[in-house]
Amino acid sequence: MQIRAYKPEDREGIAALWKQCNLTVAWNDPFKDIDRKINDASDRFLVGLMDDEIIATAMYGYDGHRGSVNYLAVSPDHRNRGFAKQLMACVASTLTDMGCPKINLMVRETNLDVIRFYESIGYKKEPVIVMGKRLISD
Fold first, then answer.
1. pTM surpassing 0.90?
2. How is residue 76 annotated by DSSP?
3. Where are the alpha helices (DSSP H) in 1-137?
4. How far separated are the first and last CA of the chain, in Å rounded?
5. CA triplet 42, 44, 49: central angle to 5 degrees?
6. How many distinct helices (H) and strands (E) make up the chain?
7. Residue 96, helix vs strand vs coil
């Protein structure tokens, strides 16, 4: 898999991948999320390609205190081949180079496969509560 930064021509393929991976929900418009990320830090939006086909993505950020990862996705046809691990290693390396001491993740508690994946690469459940407040209704 080749990893590179997001390009505008990736937009439709990424939205289709996220839908295929069940990452979109009624209150998250994938196109709005893509636009928000590229307006924030498009270089922190990775796309994984195989034969010019988008097969994976990862959005990440760093607020000066902690890193975060969202929309880690690998096409169901390309899973269990190390591509998610490859993306996460790229993210972790870049964040480490930026001085980021830790990555925090939010995973839906029903997404057991993803929880097991993150545990397999060294992430642990922590005794915290994630709280949120919607500011803009999509």
1. yes
2. G
3. 11-20, 30-41, 83-97, 112-120
4. 33
5. 90
6. 4, 5
7. helix
